Each structure stands twice: as C-alpha cells, then as structure tokens.
Amino acid sequence: QKEVEQNSGPLSVPEGAIASLNCTYSDRVSQSFFWYRQYSGKSPELIMSIYSNGDKEDGRFTAQLNKASQYVSLLIRDSQPSDSATYLCAGAGGGADGLTFGKGTHLIIQP
Amino acid sequence: NAGVTQTPKFQVLKTGQSMTLQCAQDMNHNSMYWYRQDPGMGLRLIYYSASEGTTDKGEVPNGYNVSRLNKREFSLRLESAAPSQTSVYFCATLRGAGTGETQYFGPGTRLLVL
C-alpha cells in the first residue's frame, strides 16, 4: 500500500461550487497532515495543516481529518479559476525524513 | 528573508557530465531535503539531512550524492548525468518536529539531460 494516496484527476468543478479533494494514508505517516498547492512550473506552497480529528477552517479552505478511517480531505468553497492547480496531500510520521507526499490531484475550475 | 534559494534555475547537460545543484536557507532550520518531481510520480525524496553533519538516503538516491556544507547549505551532485535524471529538483527545509512541522520549498531547478 502506498503511504499517501490521492486520485490524480483531473477533477473539474464549476466556478463558485465546492471542490472536494481526498487523500488516504498509511499508519507510518499518521501524525500530521498537510495540503500543498502547486501551480504549473512553480514549487509547492503550504495551504493547510491539520493534526487532530475534525475540521479546520481557514478562509475558503477547510481541511478534514478522520484518523479512524485514515483519510484527510480538503474542501474549497466558492471555487475560483485561480484555484486551478495540482493539490498535494502529505503526511508526516514524526521522523527526520520529513513529509511523504501523494502524487497530487489536478483541479480545474471551469469559469 | 529569502527563505529557500536554489541555483541554477535551469540546466542542460549531456549524458556523462557532472554538476552540483546548490541550496541555501536562511530560516535556521536543522533539516534539509532534496526531492525530484516527475510527471505522474509526485515528489520523491532523494536524500535528506536531519542536521549539520548528517545525511541519509531517501527513496531514490542512486546516481546522486549530497553534502551538508553547514547549517545553511545542502548541495546535490550528479557525478555522471543520465537522461533518466531529467527532472525538476526541489530543495526543502523542515520546521519543527512532530505536530507543527512544516516543509518549505525552494523554487526548483529544471534539469534536462540529453
């Protein structure tokens, strides 16, 4: 089993709708979780981090963590064309080897 | 603060040539990382350095060497470049450990090996 798995997409969502991105993970990377956004040709940038079960909201973004089911999700409300990017889910096991990344989900917001 | 910087931004090599990718950070983080990113493969860890003076292999270390020159600098060397090493290379640092840890990425180096 891959340690962090994401659907590669593309996921196409109309402008103004809610985009829902999902990620599952293995036991080794179960301490803390991160969502990064990566525009084409750019480096990943951190959007959200979440460590505890439940929801965490930051502006239009909500991260959800369910440790019993081993999944983490990112909701983007009122999606904008500028949200079109690849979203990387990452998990950390607390070791020195840093974060383990999924392959990313390509999100397209249709105007 | 510049954060994480990488040089060069772009490089074209011929098979068999060598080069060193440079990375520097001004965030005073102990841990530094080198990733490569290929289409459909996500970010794969090449090497990391948990602290000055230590380095460890990641998922895909073959064909690479690293040097943690000091706390600020972590370089990646390709001794004999191969076309399979055509990729985008990202350097990253890690803030904290356990809950609160976050990785910060440099702008990347785009490498083409002919």
Structural notes for this entry:
The complex is a heterodimer of chains A (111) and B (114). Chain A is mainly beta and 111 residues long. Chain A contains no helices and eleven strands. In chain A, strands 2, 4, 5, 9, 10 and 11 form a six-stranded mixed beta sheet that branches. In chain A, strand 7 and strand 8 form a beta hairpin. In chain B, the strands form two sheets. In chain B, strands 2, 4, 5, 6, 9, 10 and 11 form a seven-stranded mixed beta sheet that branches. In chain B, strands 1-3-8-7 form a four-stranded antiparallel beta sheet, with no helix packed on it. Chain B is globular and about 40 Å long. The model of chain B has no long low-confidence stretch (mean pLDDT 92). Chain B starts with a strand and ends with a strand.
Radius of gyration of chain B: 13 Å
Q: What percent of the residues of chain B sit in helical stretches (DSSP H or I)? A: under 10%
The greatest interface here is: A-B, 23 and 26 residues
Largest sheet of chain B: 7 strands, mixed
Question: Which descriptor suits the 3D outline of chain B?
Answer: globular
Supply the helix-strand structural class of chain B: mainly beta
Note poorly predicted spans of chain B: none
Strand/helix succession of chain A: EEEEEEEEEEE
Label the overall shape of chain A.
Answer: globular
